[in-house]
Description:
mainly alpha; 15 helices
Amino acid sequence: MSATTLGPRPLAPSSGQLVAVGFSTALLAAGAVGFQPAEAWAGVLTAGLYGVTLSLGGALFLAIQIVAGARWWFPLRNVPLRLARTLPVPLVAVGLALVFGLTTLYPWARPDASALVHAKHAWLNPPLFLARAVVLAVVWLALIGLLSRALRAMVAQPSAEGRRRLVRAALVFLPLFALSISVAAWDWGMSLEPEWFSTMYSVLLFAGTFQGGIAAVTVLALLLDRQGRLAAPLGDAARHDLGKLLFAFSTFWAYVWFCQYLLIWYSNIPEETGHYVTRFGDGWGALFWLTPLLCFVFPFVAQISQPAKRDAGSLYRAALVVLLGRWLDTYLLVAPSQGPVPAVPLGALAATVAVLAGMRLLWERDADAGH
């Protein structure tokens, strides 16, 4: 496969089609809430978290390249920026799950919570929990806005001062992002099982966020390059850099994933093993072991050689598989806490399609506005 061949050219959906798909799948997810509330709200939270990590992954990609002083990414600068600006859509899904599915999803929000959970009441109580969610959303949107304005200003009027302002914006973004993504991991993910804890959990979510951001930027950049919609063609060197990033941070994700698993398995302390016991039983085991195959083994094997990193088709397929693995990993962070594996995760699939359709619609409107 040549460097510019990704396979058959996909048909771009119109705005009307995106609205129709998003609305119909959102209705399907809402209907699932009425029949299987625990499974459906877990699906809505999965869809929201997946979209949030992809959007934030785009912003993180942007900030790291700026601070590192890289130049290779500049022709595709609008890709991670526009990806980051789709954040409001998945935030709506997360908000719906947290507000309306709170007592269904989170045991600590129920009156019959255990004594151990009650001991965490100072942190895990509904008013403070929802207030933190609002603060996280505001912080993320403000940080993305800060990066966006600094980058636009620097592109419009290139100067040494504009470059310094852009670097300062990225330096503000990175520590606040690190703190905020940790709080989101503790609140939205780990508190689904409030009697369980892991010091690696927030690091694992960070690793998945950056890996997903790299994969999403790669897929979008390759598609836009094929359509001639990048500021400059994506050459072999730029594809090689994207491939190296995907390869490296798939390995980093696997390292963090394995570290958390190995330490808990080796120590075998009952209050730590519950998370994995749940994911080995009730039909979740096969999906659990499929996750590292999608997020690590496939991209590692597919991108281990230099020619594979430079080949658009190979890079595109590896990034798509990683995006699928990122969804499955997010689903396994949320859904097992709500019961056995469903025959068909209708709520999760419908909510995910709705969120992705909304993100695509916002992406296209951003492009039409010239952002």
